[in-house]
Amino acid sequence: MIRQKSFESDVSTLYLVPTPIGNLQEMTPRALDILKEVSVIAAEDTRNTKKLLMAYGIDTMLMSHHEHNQQVSIPKIIERLENGENVAVVSDAGYPLVSDPGQKLVQETISHGFNVVSVSGANAAMNALVASGLSCYHYLFYGFLDNKSSKRKKQLEEIKTIPYTTIFYEAPHRIEDTLQDMLEVLGNRQMCLARELTKVHEEYIRGTIEEVLEVAATCKGEMVIVMDGFKQDDVVFDMYTAITKVDEYIESGMRTKEAIGLVAKEMACKKNELYEAYHKR
Predict the structure, then answer these.
(1) pLDDT (tens digit, 9 = 90+) per residue, 179-234?
(2) Which residues lie closer than 8 Å to 133 by C-beta, 6 or more apart?
(3) What is the largest CA-CA distance in the chain?
(4) Of 34, 106, 110, 203, which has the maximum CB count within 10 A?
């Protein structure tokens, strides 16, 4: 067991400092003070962080720390902590570690006996959740789904019966495909698509998955999907399972058209919709 009393310890500290997700004014006074006072700021992209520091007149030294150089950067950060220095970690936007690398650094810092302190600040998932109109009492943050549709559907299959509101991050060039996969696996649930949060083009699109799909192609910017949880009384047709069954029948020797007709009958779905989904995957 390790007990850390953050404000009663004189050991060096690694600060996890969130940065604005769009609006530069969303830096807290405490976060700014920490960025001014630490010996060095470990940044995911020093070019992006330099712009932020310049906006607030902060001249603290920067060092690069990201997924591809952490074998080199982590020992350097630990060495600074051992020398009695405090270090801040920032990502390009929002909280460090949330859908960003950094977990290994935190684990190494803890194992060496130093403090790890998180600072309050902007977070896209929370912004989207509380304004979504969906339940906030219980929720699951999932982050990014896989890039490939087949793997994405398997991931959705694993969580489709979770009764909690679920939050996903997604890139604009994948939003249509991801929502289509969600429609097939989860059914036509209520959702909210939040994009460009805190920026001038901020938008919340609330409705069913089918309704949001109608405008998804026109949406740009960083996106958060807030999806309603599973309800026991929902009647959800699972297109992913249907397609899997078609494949199984084909593998057993059945012709494609015949397999689609049989699965459509078994699962009480429209044959033409199953046919179209099967050949579009």
Answers:
(1) 999 998 998 999 999 999 999 999 999 999 999 999 999 999 999 999 999 986 65
(2) 192, 206
(3) 73
(4) 34
Query: Which stretches of the chain are assigned E, i.e. beta strand?
Result: 13-16, 40-43, 61-64, 87-90, 115-118, 139-144, 165-170, 190-195, 203-208, 223-227
Global pTM value: 0.79
Cβ-contact 17, 121 below 8 angstroms: yes
Number of C-beta neighbours around residue 111 at 10 A: 10
From residue 121, give the alpha-carbon distance in Å to each of 12, 36, 37, 67, 256. 22, 16, 18, 22, 53
Out of 3.30.70.260, 3.40.1010.10, 2.60.40.420, 2.40.10.350, the CATH code matching 13-118 is 3.40.1010.10
Domain 124-227 has CATH 3.40.50.10490: no
What DSSP character marks residue 24? G
